[in-house]
């Protein structure tokens, strides 16, 4: 298995374990997961191709759905009301 998929699997395992943590840990953990997930997504896309990259993007969005929801709401407010 390529190293990028191994690291992506480890990222997903850590994300699931952090979901079991107390709620005060969730937002700082989400920040760290986003900061590590974006370069990892690029590495997977570079090594495995765009279909794998899209699959991992969908998996990451399903894990981090609330930060994505709030970012979308912020972007909508910023660009559609201005």
Overview of the structural elements:
With 82 residues, this protein is an all-alpha fold. It contains four helices and no strands. It has helices spanning 3-19, 26-48, 50-63, 65-80. α1 runs antiparallel to α2 (26-48), α1 runs parallel beside α3 (50-63) and α2 (26-48) packs antiparallel against α3 (50-63). The protein is flat, with a radius of gyration of 14 Å. The mean pLDDT is 92.
Strand % is under 5%
End-to-end distance: 47 Å
Helix content, binned percent: over 70%
Q: What is the gyration radius calculated from CA atoms? A: 14 Å
Element pattern in H and E: HHHH
Whole-number mean pLDDT: 92
Query: How many strand elements?
Result: 0
Number of helices: 4
Shape: flat
Specify the biggest β-sheet.
none
Low-confidence stretches: none
Structural class: mainly alpha
